Amino acid sequence: MTSTATALDEPVERVGRGWTAALSLANVAIWVGWYGPLQILLARQAEDFAPGTGMSKETLLAWVTGAGAVVSLAANPFFGALSDRTTARWGRRTPWIVAGSAGGSLSLLLLAGAGGLWLMTLGWCLVQLTLNASFAAVTAAVPDRVPRLQRGSVGGWLGAAQILGAVAGTGLATAAGGIAAGYVACAVFAAAGVLPYVLRYPDLRLETANRPPWHGRSFLRGFWLSPRRYPDFAWAWLTRFLINLSNALVILYLLYYLRDRLRYDDPEHGVLILTAVNSVTLLATVVVGGVWSDRVGRRKPFVRWSGALMAAATALLAAWQTWPGAIVVAALLGLALGVFMSVDFALMTDVLPKALDRGKDLGVINVANALPQVAAPAVAAPIVTHLGGYRVLYAVAAVIGLAGAVFVDRIRGVD
Description:
Layout (H helix, E strand, L loop, with lengths): L16 H33 L7 H29 L8 H19 L4 H29 L5 H25 L3 H14 L2 H6 L15 H6 L9 H21 L2 H8 L5 H30 L3 H20 L3 H28 L7 H29 L3 H18 L8
Helix pairs in contact: 1-2, 1-4, 1-5, 1-6, 2-4, 2-14, 3-4, 3-6, 4-14, 5-6, 5-11, 5-13, 9-12, 9-14, 9-15, 10-11, 11-13, 12-13, 12-15
């Protein structure tokens, strides 16, 4: 793809299928690096390490994933801001995509050799740090290169890439035959998957004259975007946070839910089945929802009704706690989440304040993806262990998701 655009221009030239496919594959690679551990490998390590720590496996897993999520909270906007300022001849985003994926692969290999809780925690924090550098740059490439009325469809393909990454990561972790082998498989994929994009598609360069002077205090102040000054940005952030928190509460203890509540014979295989069902239905709507939103030029109705359907499906999981019920809920969540992921992403890019800060501002928005990983263990662990178990957990998740669907109407600048 050739273009005469500069890094700070509002894009007008539609991107091609090859560019979208390569960026989507890079996104798949990042999500493999996250979801292989989150769905299977970290839970299995928590079971191995918990007996010597005095904690339950649920609590240990909550501490490890929570620590990694704290790192992610800072890493995504930080590296997004650094990429905004990067004037390398390879462009603003490409250096961070390469460095982040390479560092993520090495961090996954460190996890493969972890022999206890502290090395497990360190390894997962490094995975979050490095892969968030890559993810911030990949995400910022969309408002850099994609015109507004194509962002729903491109967001749909990126959403499809996310769920394919979850499926591939879960599959690699399950099929590899062991914890260490699973981490190695995810590490190889995380490194190789970004190569087609960075090798084939040159990035837009930021001219040194367009980079603001460095002032440490101003750099740090830039991460605060006043809700009073940018209310649409604030409401969009809150909507994404609440719906992601609801989803995080559903998947955090999924392996333990199948094993301890449903008494499913092979819970790891059960997680893979539910992930596959969810993925099939998500893929059926994620691109279609984004394309439809582009064609009608509207965002909020799609986000509102997909969020409401996700809340209803989560409430069903609280009421119908059986294996068939879990399959039905996985299918409904996939249908709704597909529409939400593509259209919500387009909505986020529509409320960005300035072209110069696209990476940083999207990083702040992506905090709404990472913060639920911190909040979910803090909410879920006491509910599961002391306040009513999984039925109450999923009822709470449904209420939170419904609130997110309602708040999208407070965004005034986007139809």
